[in-house]
Design goal:
Blueprint: H1 2-30, H2 42-49, E1 51-57, E2 62-64, E3 73-81, H3 92-99, H4 103-112, E4 117-118, H5 129-137, E5 143-151, H6 158-161, E6 164-166, H7 168-174, E7 185-187, H8 190-194, H9 196-199, E8 205-210, E9 224-226, E10 236-239, H10 243-255, E11 261-267, E12 272-279, H11 308-317, E13 327-328, E14 345-346, H12 348-354, H13 357-370, H14 374-381, E15 391-394, E16 397-401, H15 415-419, H16 421-428, H17 438-449, E17 460-464, E18 470-473, H18 486-501, E19 518-530, E20 533-544, E21 551-561, H19 567-587
Parallel strand pairs: 2-10
Antiparallel strand pairs: 1-8, 3-4, 3-5, 6-7, 8-9, 10-17, 11-12, 11-21, 13-14, 15-16, 17-18, 19-20, 20-21
Length: 588
């Protein structure tokens, strides 16, 4: 009996040893780089236990503005100190004299340090190039003057550029064939998400030293600089954003109290985004709470009378713009007396300038009677119903999109609605189910300003290698589909200008601006109420200078009371700011 028990125990011990051996083999030989369901790299973790390091650059690609300035990060020349200095005799007096930092402050920082640091973090002391050179000439082990990459607490065009984060599950799903650390940052919104595959790090740039169990240098006091072997990475995405214009635009949006909405500014010649502002802003403490991460300029909204531009284009081509015809603008589209906007009898041109609902409801009915698809066809011709962001073939990706968060617009939701004259009338004034994104409306204005030429909107012009050479060029590309004729575009240009020059036009506020403006206002009922009063979407969309178009601009204030302003003043201040900007550039 005892023998059997001993034999059983031996067998259990042998099985246990075999299981333990197999487990050790799995850990040390098989799954050294992808251990457990979390794909932990045991080699990296082992090395990290025996090293202390300061990451200079996390290796993820960067976003630049159109002039090459960093947008989301900054490189700061800093003083880097390693903790082992507190146990050494070194020339602290010389470092203090050069840097201007007292010896007492340096010693206190070292006493508090458990790992290498840039002095003064999170707001590091910034050195001059001369100070850097003199400190490095001292050749003190553990003392370095280097340029370190810091993420900006706030950066321009935050919703357009987007955010990054750690998400092991999404990382594995997105890149199943790549061996990446669980802690690899990935893009979760905006351009960070669109360009994520290009921005993935090849490795970190860092200063490293090996330590023993007490944190003392293991191999003397030599600190090593580790840099990824690939000289072409990380890449830079050169956006079309003008950093100066973007910052001024954000200041103006906040100055005019736009709490929900913003603006989008396009360069008409290159059809690219110069500035994009979305409010509410991102909550830095909890970015995924609320709607701050949403880029309102890419989301479909009720557009109101802006859509009358589409109706006008269709009416011109259907010869419904007879200048001798008068419309009764003393009644609403349903025939009831118009009390607030009682304009009397107006021509087609005056109806557009004063934004008469009766005229465009009536015209929409006539167009629907001719062809129920006409409103949708002209909305597509003016780029309101599809996406407008740049898309195309990039390397192995056939349908690469710069703006992954962009909504499509629409006119009708059902075939039945297309056939209904009343729905057609409501759609003709931009109500019912009509929706468009601010960026699509801006593109419509740019299209009209160019004489009908319809193009994709670029938010990035190229991807550059680390050495500055071009990896990918995002050339101007035409938007697919039918377009309006140059004649129709010319007629629309005159109508949009009439909105401003007409003494009773809805854009009369812009008559005395330094640039001649052409555009269209919009006030849309949202069906939302506050204190029993309906909220509205307030728009102004246009382009300027009228004779030599350079900019297309849309300003929008969402879910506000009809009496609340902001949009007109914002648009006007933007025109003034851009005029001053252009004068300064000419001086340079």
């Amino acid at each position: 009996m005892i023998r059997k028990r001993i034999k059983g125990l031996l067998i259990l011990c042998i099985v246990g040893l075999l299981v333990l051996t197999a487990r050790l083999m799995q850990i040390q030989l098989v799954q050294t780089e992808t251990f457990s369901k979390h794909n932990v790299n045991l080699l990296e973790e082992s090395v990290q236990q025996r090293t202390q390091e300061l990451v200079i650059d996390n290796g993820r690609g960067n976003f630049l503005d159109r002039n090459g300035d960093l947008l989301t990060h900054k490189k700061v020349p800093v003083l880097v100190l390693f903790p082992f200095l507190k146990n050494m005799t070194w020339d602290i007096e010389a470092v203090s004299a050069i840097s201007g930092i007292s010896e007492e402050s340096i010693n206190k920082a070292l006493d508090d340090a458990k790992k290498p640091f840039a002095y003064g973090e999170p707001q590091p002391v910034e050195l001059t190039s001369s100070q850097m050179e003199r400190i490095n000439k001292l050749e003190i082990p553990g003392v370095f003057a280097i340029e370190k990459k810091f993420e900006r607490a706030e950066f321009p065009a935050e919703q357009l550029i987007g955010l990054t984060g750690e998400n092991a599950e999404v990382l594995k799903k997105r890149y199943p064939n790549k061996e990446l650390s669980e802690k690899t940052l990935i893009g979760v919104s905006g351009l960070e998400e669109s360009f994520d595959e290009f921005l993935l790090p090849e490795g970190k740039s860092k200063l490293v030293y090996h330590v023993d169990g007490d944190g003392a240098p293991l191999f003397g006091i030599n600190v090593k600089y580790v840099d990824p072997a690939n000289p072409f990475y990380p890449v830079n995405v050169r956006t079309t954003i003008d950093k100066s214009l973007q910052q001024k635009s954000e200041e103006l949006v906040d100055k005019h109290g736009i709490n929900k909405g913003g603006l989008v500014l396009l360069d008409i010649e290159s059809n690219s985004v110069l500035a994009s502002v979305s409010r509410p802003a991102i909550n830095k403490n909890d970015p995924f709470s609320g709607s701050g991460i949403t880029n309102r300029m890419l989301k479909q909204e009720i557009m109101g009378s802006i859509f009358k531009t589409v109706v006008a284009a269709a009416a011109i081509d259907q010869s419904l713009d007879d200048p001798t015809r008068l419309f009764n603008c003393s009644v609403k589209i349903n025939g009831e007396p118009e009390v607030k906007y009682n304009y009397g009898m107006l021509s087609f041109t005056d109806s557009f300038a004063r934004s008469c609902n009766r005229t465009f409801g009536e015209l929409a009915r006539e167009l629907q009677k001719t062809d129920k698809n006409l409103l949708e066809e002209y909305a597509e011709k003016l780029s309101l119903t599809g996406t407008v962001g740049w898309k195309g073939e990039v390397y192995h990706t056939n349908n690469f999109k710069q703006l992954v968060d962009e909504d499509k617009g629409r006119v009708f939701l059902t075939e039945e609605a297309k056939k209904d004259p009343n729905y057609a009338a409501m759609s003709g004034i931009g109500q019912h189910e009509v929706r468009a994104t601010p960026i699509a409306v801006a593109n419509m204005m740019a299209t009209i300003a160019r004489g009908g030429k319809k193009e994709m909107v670029r938010s990035a012009s190229k991807i550059e290698y680390k050495n500055g050479t071009t990896m990918v060029n995002f050339e101007n590309q035409a938007l697919s589909g039918d377009i309006i004729s140059p004649y129709t575009a010319m007629k629309l240009q005159k109508l949009l200008r009439e909105v401003v020059v007409n003494p009773n036009g809805t854009g009369k506020w812009f008559q005395d601006l330094p640039y001649e403006v052409a555009g269209k206002s919009g006030t849309a009922e949202t069906g939302k109420y506050e204190y029993d009063k309906q909220l509205h979407n307030k728009w102004f969309a246009g382009y300027f200078p009228y004779q030599n178009p350079k900019y297309a601009l849309v300003a929008v204030n969402l879910d506000v009371l009809d009496t609340e302003g902001g949009v007109n003043l914002l648009f006007a201040d933007m025109v003034k700011m851009l005029h001053e900007h252009d004068i300064e550039r000419q001086k340079d």
